[in-house]
Amino acid sequence: MPSNTVHAAVLGSGLLGLDLVERMQNSPHLSCELVVGRTSHSRGLAQAAELGCAIAAGGVAALLDSGQRFDIVFDATNAFEHPEHWARLAGTGAVLIDLTPTSGGALIVPTVNGDQAAAHQHIGLVSCGGQASIPVLHALAQHYCPEYVEMVATAASVSVGWASRLNLDEFVETTEGAIRWFTGAGEAKTMLNISAAAPPPPFRIAMTMVSPGVEQDQVREVVEAAAAAMRTVVPGYRITSCTVTGDTARVIAEVTATRNRMPVHAGNLEVISAAAIYAAEQHALNKVPALKELAR
Predict the structure, then answer these.
(1) What is the CA angle 173-139-277, rounded to 5?
(2) What CA–CA distance (Å, rounded) separates 82 from 267?
(3) Which of 45, 117, 242, 268 has the most crowded CB, counting CB atoms within 10 A?
C-alpha cells in the first residue's frame, strides 16, 4: 500500500459497503484493507473480493481477529449492533465512522462542520435524511430563529435495505435530535416515507421551517448557496422548490445517485456514503502531514 494512504476497513457488505470500497479505490488518501460481512456466502463479500479487497465473515469479531491494525473503520451495519462495535473498537485506536442512525458519536455533516471531523475518534453521520436536510436548515438558522422545523424524507422502497428497515425508529429519533442541535429550533419533527412506486422515485426531502421574519428572496439565496456547497460533496443534490408563505419557509430537495454502482434513485445511500468518505479523508489529511501539502 502506498505510504501516503491510511488503512481502512468496512463492516458491512451491502450496497453501501461496496460503494465505500469503490470510493476508497478512487481516493488518493484511503486504502481499503478489509471488508467484513455477516456470513461467508454473502454476495456482497464475493463482489468485494472481485474488487480486489481482502474479505472476512463473522462481523466485528472477524475484524478484530484479522491481526491487522486499522486507522479507520466504517460501520455500515445497523444501529442495534453499532454500540457493541464502538465498545470493542475504541481501545484499538481506530476511528469509527458510523453510517447507521445512532447518536453516540460526534455528529458530522460535511458542509456544516466537516472541518471538525479530524478531532473525533467516534463519528456519527446522523442519517441520510439528516445529511440531506441539515445543510439547508442550518444555513437558514444562521439568518432566522426557527420555532419549528419539520423534515419529511421519501425514499424508494428498493433503496431501503433490511438494516435500514430495522432502524426506522432510530432514524426518526436521531434525525430530530440532530436538527434541533444544528438549528436551535425549539421543536423538530422528522418523518420517513418508503415509496413502492414504479419506477422508483429519487430520494426527496421536504423541509418546513417556521420563523418570524422569513423573506422569499433571502430564503432562496441562502438555500441555493447551501445546495451549491452540497453539490461539491454530492453532485446529484438539487433544490426543486423554495417558497415562503407568512412565517413559513418550505424547501424541497432531491438527491439522485451519480455513482456507477448506485441506482439513480438511491440518493439516500449516496448522501451518507459521500459524508463517510469526506470524514475519513479529513482524518487521513490530519494523520499524514504529507497529505496536507498534496491537498493544497
Answers:
(1) 65
(2) 23
(3) 268
- CATH domain 6-125+271-295 topology: Rossmann fold (3.40.50)
The full set of domain ranges for the chain reads: 6-125+271-295, 128-264
What's the CATH fold of domain 128-264? Dihydrodipicolinate Reductase; domain 2 (3.30.360)
Contacts for 16 with CB less than 8 Å, ≥ 6 apart: 76, 99, 161, 269, 272, 273
Please give the single-letter amino acid code of residue 293: E
Instruction: Give the residue numbers annotated as catalytic, written as ranges.
Output: 128
123 vs 108: CA distance, rounded Å: 7
